[in-house]
Amino acid sequence: MAVAPGVQLEPGDVLVTGRDGRMGVTFVDGTRFAVGPNSRVTLTSFQFDRTRQSGSFVTSVDRGSLGVVSGSIAKSGRDAMRVRTPTSMLGVRGTRFVVDVP
Amino acid sequence: MRIGGAIAAILTLGACAAPKAVLLPGEDGHPVGALAVLDEKGGEQVMDQPLRSARMTRSGATLRTEKAIKPAYQQLMNTLPPPAKSFTLYFVDGTSTLLPTSRPVLDQIRAEMTARSGAEVQVTGHTDTVGSDEDNDRLSQKRADEVMAELIAEGFPKDALSAVGRGEREPAVNTGDNVANAENRRVEVIVR
User: Chain B residue with minimal CA distance to A93?
Assistant: First the structure.
């Protein structure tokens, strides 16, 4: 499905970009993603309690590149935000980083 | 020379094939934070300095410090959406009538919505602690609906906005029960 700005995402959605594609995503906890070209990124799970500002968030970078600025979920508990790659699991303790899967 | 170059290229390619993570400096002078490579046995390797990176293979991670941010990574970070922005509007005591001094904030919100592609707006109403919980739940929802109606009237798509009332549960200023407080009679708007 081709997307236009403003589309709402759900857990389980897979973000795919082509050779010249790029994508920016903002999450309700304030986390922001930049998805680079030739990428495949899966939003494996996302839970957020707005009142408590806490939750859990798992993303898989299957290929390509992902730039992240983490939000409230990463602050809400140790490794509440994790990023999986084909070979590893990252625990996010804040705040700006890049994951690159060639 | 040529052969040497070719071998170097192959070695570099080999080294690049593993997934990599790089911790970047914090945004706008914020502290750097940390990133940990977790293994299945509960162990971890932590990056907690700017430009610390990990090359991650199935057998483990190798940490080092990069000399500079790769231009491709810089370019990637430049495509991040702007951070969410929040606004607060205040109300006449016991009503869903905006204070005149808060009306210009509506214009600021509209400008922020227009400036973003695919903006989403979250409107949350609050009250002070005067009155019953039920009345305040209703009043806070009315305040949020009022602000949402103002924004929709300007032609913004309805499904990009949502309004909830939180009653007196989340005061801006902690007071006892049954205390009139102008700072708590508010609606918070987050544009993202």
Answer: B34
